[in-house]
């Protein structure tokens, strides 16, 4: 009985490959060496079958695929080194000018990301060094805080 299962698997693969080949548009005939012992019906059948090349395919669980295509709203704040909110600071998705947000009077921002895939964010404000961060899972972020440092700090004497 154990020798029956491998033969059944081979038959299943053969049937599956023939179904894919039959569904492929356009005839592709490949000449193969034939034995003189093969029945003529089998040779005729091989000549009329279409051959399909199978390509590797990326398989992603449905839950993950849907999660990655859902827009994500990300909120956060921008402050200076001293903790004072920076109103009018700009936050954007790194490498694009399409997803941009400007902080309000409280230094808070809200930006909608196209998907939940990992993404880079940048922040800038006049007189402060630009800062960037990478978010591995934007949908799990509970508030992004940018703390910017002044570009020309005065030295006290």
Automatic annotation (TrEMBL):
Enumerate the SUPFAM superfamilies for this protein: Carboxypeptidase regulatory domain-like (SSF49464)
One Pfam family matching this protein: CarboxypepD_reg
Q: NADP as a keyword?
A: no
**Signal peptide start-end:** 1-21
Q: Which domain of life is it from?
A: Bacteria
What the entry lists under Gene3D superfamilies is as follows: Carboxypeptidase-like, regulatory domain
Q: Does the keyword Signal apply?
A: yes
Alphabetically sorted, this entry's keywords are:
Signal
Protein known as: Carboxypeptidase-like regulatory domain-containing protein
Source organism: Hymenobacter taeanensis
Give the taxonomic lineage as stored in the record: Bacteria, Pseudomonadati, Bacteroidota, Cytophagia, Cytophagales
